[in-house]
Amino acid sequence: MLVTLKNILDKANKGGYAVGAFNINNMEILQAVMSAAVKKKSPVIISTSEGAIEYAGLDYLRAMAGVAAKSKVPVCLHLDHGRNMSMIQECINNGWTSVMFDGSHFPYDENVKLTKKVVAMARKRGVSVEAELGTIGGAEEKIVSRHIVYTEPDAALSFVKETKVDALAIAIGTSHGAYKFQGESKLDIGRLKVIKELVKIPLVLHGASGVPAYVVQKAVNYGAKLGHPEGVSDEQIKRAIKNGINKINTDTDLRLSFTSAIREILTTKPEVFDPRKLLGPARNMMQKVVEHRMDVFGSVNKA
Hints:
It is built from 12 helices and 11 strands. Helices cover 49% and strands 17% of the residues. It has a single domain (5-297), classed as Aldolase class I (TIM Barrel, Alpha-Beta Barrel), CATH 3.20.20.70. Helix 7 (153-163) packs parallel to helix 8 and helix 11 packs antiparallel against helix 12 (275-297). It is of the alpha/beta class. The strands form 2 sheets. An 8-stranded parallel barrel has the order 1-2-3-4-5-8-10-11, surrounded by 10 helices. A 3-stranded mixed sheet has the order 7-6-9, with no helix packed on it. The radius of gyration is 18 Å and the shape is globular.
């Protein structure tokens, strides 16, 4: 069933768990995410970036989400890192139940002004709004930042009061992409605690993929040149959830899983040319990763 982000995250906030937002680009990724959600009886956020919409097409993604919505678990169709106002409006008008406006690259006052505009647009259709204050590092699709600008607690309180958003993405040390840290992950949990005490609403962690070592190793074994990718540890994720995070974005883990499985088939079975025999194992690998994320997030049996 298709529901709003507010519907899913208000329950997570009250219950002390987090719900995964998984970026999709095609049918196999969506199938992997939904199969995991149904198996784990977990609510799920299907996340589409502006890049994914440009790649797959708004109509295709909407149609696929319609199929996903027939499942018995709560499903939110969410626009991730929306910056293009026209695309945000298109999503609002075409069945997305949640949009994120990313004004984190603007000065505070401009971020507030534009976020309020998106909230007004979304409220007319009963659509939830996520916004971002502070800037996480790294690069993913069109979102690039060289530096982390940590979210200030007092600014977060003012921002939420002024904009009336349903969820707030904050910067506490995570980073987009596969190369988040040098060494072990470390999040500013103290800062998170203070922000949560002030704003109360569901908080969001972007750039929080786990980058599983076994997935990376498989990809490397079959020819990938990945350098030294590092993700956020399960322990750090659980601490973040315990202290107020209710939505966690995952994209890099899916990409790595997809790639590692396809590389294995291409290497070990060079005679294969049926796309189903390439994409099927990739789908299964992604589902395994999504199931693990749901276990870590605590969303299992919360549907």
